[in-house]
Amino acid sequence: MSGAMATAYRGRGAAVNGDVVGSSLSNMKTVRALVMVSLVVAVAGCGSNSSQPAARETSTTTVPKSTTTTGEHDTEHGKEHGPDHHAPAPKPAKPLPVLPDGTLDPDGVDLSGIEGVTAEQQKYAEKLLVDTINILPVGSSYEEALANGFVTVGDESTGEEHLIRWDRMNDDVYLNPSEPESLVYQVDQTGGRTLEAAMFFMPDRFTLDNVPMAAGKLMQFHVHDDLCFLPPPSGRLAGFRVIGEPCAEGTNGLPNLMAHVWIRPNACGPFAALTGVGGGQVKAGEEVSCLAEHGSHGL
After folding, report:
1. How many other C-beta atoms lie within 10 A of the C-beta of residue 193?
2. b/e per residue, 224-260, with b = 16+ CB within 10 A?
3. Domain residues for 189?
4. Does 228 lie in the same domain as 185?
5. Model-level pTM?
6. Which of 30-34, 136-140, 191-195 has the lowest mean pLDDT?
């Protein structure tokens, strides 16, 4: 500013006595107080303004990142989500469809609806069943089976006859419908045989405690600790024994685990064991499985 203006400003200030100065200081304090109040109100307003993000509490819990979508919610980047009211309900179990020739329809195999079965177990079981339906009948007429090395155990009087390839019993190929260890035929009143199922044997290194359960509770393994057989090449059923007791001299027990896969309707589902004495023994604490939800009764 010019010297004259500076002189005038200083003169005006010099003319303002102590009362004026005190008033100015009081006004400045008031302004400061109003500014502080405004800042407090502004900060508080930010917390309630819907257009601004609210402050978030800090948590020491690490939420794993997930990209699983659940209805309208998701857990991507650890976002919280509530109960999903939009996901479809689990599909109910239903009987398997049957083709006009009496075999299960491979295109209609759906083993969903059983509690405690994972998606991977269901997928494995469905593939095993579909493959067995499609592959097992090829070259497996009764006469063809006998020509291909299968021998009967001699149980045809029960209405179900088992043919076994004893040389496959302990190889490293199992649960394979292209190389089944046993074929099961229904025997009618005229003596005709109709292929009904494969009976897959596991190598004798497996027990009910360590057998792989790739199909979960959809497929239950059993063992016949009460049966004795003549040694191959006969392989015929020789008699029964008390479980835990040795077989009669010249006969052998059968320690291998086994499981049926039915290509024709079974009231207890496609992996059911036989009923009665033919059902064998299952793992201690379990009951013989009967998944009637997937059972079929033919046409």
Report:
1. 18
2. bebbbbbeeeebebbeebeeeeebeeebbbbebbbbb
3. 106-294
4. yes
5. 0.69
6. 30-34
